[in-house]
Design goal:
Length: 305
């Protein structure tokens, strides 16, 4: 299976990108950053984290329905843990061309939720979503989900999945992340670029640039970026070792993360906090509160901020 992104995914020139960024900034001023999914703790919450919700304006009708009865029933079944029913309904909605159902199916297969993990199937479903990418999309919800799918395809490019015939291609992944990060400020893409720049994976090694990418993702309260910064300060890698600052970042990461998707962050946070004294914990908590006031979880800056 080819690791190339679906055809048409990157049909974007500089002028269109500026228009998109301006539109995103305008949306940010008009509406709060809330999930149209109405389930901010579910798997869809993450891709809703980087763009604001749509303002209450008239949007054109789409030939492919975004929310359908089957999809609503499937989401309810998924939330209740009835994955067998959710799978059946998501597949039915997917057959009708619903990209939200495709995204959920990609998530279920990539995580092994309700089905055996199957990276080839996950890659296929995410590709279906990404094929609907349109840089001139007027519905921010559809834009969110298609961009998110492109991030996940880049994840597969980066790490590969040999059992599915997907060979790692870090260089191509870095190019994909860069386009997504610069056009949309997606925190997962910024985080990936940060780690890859620090390690010299797919890009020229540049630790200081990597730190900048990590900080950009951390300002959007992206838990893996916060945790990575915590590890850097704990170990003294790239930055001067600072136990208090390390604990601060893990306090923030624990608040941003979801236990079901990032259990390692919670266990690592507990381990680090247990290794410092009371004074260090108090100072770390105070620093975390200052950061949280400036960059509260669930509130994100517009692309480019």
């Amino acid at each position: 299976m080819s690791m190339r992104a679906p055809s048409g995914v990157w049909r974007m020139h500089a002028g269109i990108r500026h228009v998109i960024l301006a539109a995103v900034s305008m949306l940010m001023m008009l509406a709060p950053a809330t999930a149209a999914d109405d389930d901010e703790k579910g798997p869809l919450a993450e891709f809703y984290s980087y763009l604001p919700a749509a303002p209450d304006i008239h949007l054109p009708e789409f030939s492919i329905p975004f929310w359908t009865d089957d999809l609503k029933k499937a989401k309810r079944a998924y939330k209740n843990g009835d994955y067998e029913r959710a799978l059946k309904l998501f597949r039915r909605a997917s057959d009708d061309g619903n990209i939200v159902a495709d995204w959920y199916l990609g998530h279920m297969y990539s995580q092994g939720v309700g089905v055996p993990r199957n990276d080839a199937m996950a890659y296929s479903y995410y590709s279906r979503v990404a094929e609907h990418y349109d840089p001139e999309e007027t519905d921010p919800n559809r834009l969110r989900i298609t961009v998110d799918a492109m991030v996940r395809l880049a994840d597969y490019q980066r790490r590969g999945a040999v059992n599915a015939g997907l060979q790692p291609d870090p260089k191509a992944a870095a190019q994909s992340y860069l386009k997504i990060a610069t056009a949309y400020g997606h925190p997962a893409a910024q985080y990936a670029l940060g780690v890859m720049s620090i390690k010299g994976e797919g890009v020229k090694k540049n630790p200081q640039q990597g730190l900048k990418w990590l900080m950009a993702a951390a300002r959007k309260r992206y838990a893996p970026a916060e945790a990575y910064l915590g590890d850097l300060y704990w170990s003294g890698q790239i930055v001067n070792a600072d136990r208090t600052r390390a604990v601060m970042w893990y306090i923030l990461a624990r608040e941003s993360a979801r236990p079901d998707e990032n259990p390692e962050i919670f266990s690592r946070a507990e381990q680090i906090e247990a290794s410092v004294g009371a004074d260090e914990r108090i100072e770390a908590e105070a620093r975390a509160r200052v950061w949280e006031e400036r960059y509260p979880a669930g509130k994100v800056k517009a692309a480019g901020d």
